[in-house]
Amino acid sequence: MTDPVDPAVEAPAPPPGTPNSEARQWALIAHVSALLGFVLPFGNLIGPLIVWQLKKDMDPFVDDQGKEALNFQITVTLMLVVCVLLMLVLIGILLAWVVGIAALVLVIIAAIKSNEGTAYRYPFCWRLIK
């Protein structure tokens, strides 16, 4: 009778070009670190910037997703600045809520996709850092 768990049989190797689990984890952290903006002023920029700067040389996937997270947070910050200016005519209050909720949803989607090893591209993102 054979043992159902054979130690000689290993999990199949990931396909070439697929980021390893550590790279996927750091990409996830780059996206999720933007949630620091709910705790610290400009934490949404500081979190992805720190993760990207510390881990960009580790793996091309982490470099790509770190830049993507940072670019998106720069875009969100600029949108919120415009919303603050529009608060003078009251529409900015509503728009700030819409931008905040949309950013939260897109960050969660990006974190899930990057954890799966898929390079995520945010919609409506101004890519300043190439």
TrEMBL record:
The chain crosses the membrane at residues 26-50, 70-88, 94-112. It is a multi-pass membrane protein. It holds the Pfam family MamF_MmsF. Its main location: membrane. GO terms for molecular function: glycosyltransferase activity. It is found in: Membrane. Keywords: Glycosyltransferase, Membrane, Transferase, Transmembrane, Transmembrane helix. This is Orotate phosphoribosyltransferase.
